[in-house]
Amino acid sequence: MITFEGVTKRYPGGTIAVDDLNVEIPDGQTMVLVGPSGCGKTTTLRMINRLIDPSEGRILLDGRDVAQTKAAQLRRGIGYVIQQSGLFPHRTIEDNIATVPLLNGWPKAKARNRARELMDLVGLDQAMARRYPYQLSGGQQQRVGVARALAADPPILLMDEPFSAVDPIVRASLQDELIRLQAELHKTVVLVTHDVEEAIKVGDQVAVFYPHGKIAQVDKPEHLLGSPVDDYVEEFLGFDRGIRRLGFFPATGLDLQTETVLSEDATVEQARQAAKRAGESWVLVTDEHRLPRGWAALSELETHDGPEPLQQLTLTRYGHTFRVEQDSLRAALDATILSPTGLAVGVDDQGSVVGITSYERLRAAVQAGDETADGQGARPS
Q: Which of 87, 196, 213, 269 could be 18's S-S partner, Cβ–Cβ 3.0 to 4.6 Å?
């Protein structure tokens, strides 16, 4: 655990970068520091590994003041990832990754073997081991930077705007990789970013900074989006925080409708009666394997007579689906908005139809999630 106790950083001339900071970063979790430029988030990060020393207060690692440990020794036990990777241009990829193990006295062969293990871990082809940084893309270089930070298996990983220098597609991929790695490794990660979306996506806890080095709110991302403490935090999070909050509600909470899901072998009359019983204007037609084929409108069904099978009708496209066991209510809402019928199709991992959702069912799932949170002290994740 990392603990800040009354930490202040004051520079000559009176500029205060961090002001009386008191916060705990739990072991094995990712804490994201987010805020406007100049708010003190990078200064906070660099005080953990003593690249900057505080003017007042203490920083404790598992109860021990970092000031009691020599800076060089401290840093070798803390992984550090910066913008644009900071790789040594004259060293190969495997030697870049092996930097800290070599400094710690590992034999070169052992350090290089560790480097190749980490290349696999972060999704880099081992064929790149003997290349130099300039021969890799920006995203590949950032993966090398993460691997280098993990080389000596440090319990703490500090990341200062680690993905800001790459394009949005690569950035999203690297964020996903960090989430995957953290699920496997359970490091204590402190990540600095100016991007609220990134903070919400990767953080177990998010600390929003006011300008001039004070924390406005520390909370779980879903709580932050649902209950900002003041107008500053609300404005910083953005106008669409309600939509983003849906990402923390699993689609398994939906009460899906199945009465109007019919096989293409069913008759028009059967479909018409099913729609009327359910009070719905559309019926979802599936094939023999329960894969979705399209929508049949009740108004269209009423123009046909009894025994005609649904497979003979011209169907309305069903739009894109969402996965009930893997996706969130945000994905379900997206599918509902884009559906030509205002209804969305939930499927299993094989693509077979599980049921249908609507705006009303989405609203009920959100309300049920909020009630669960009130009763248990946490929202679904």
A: 213
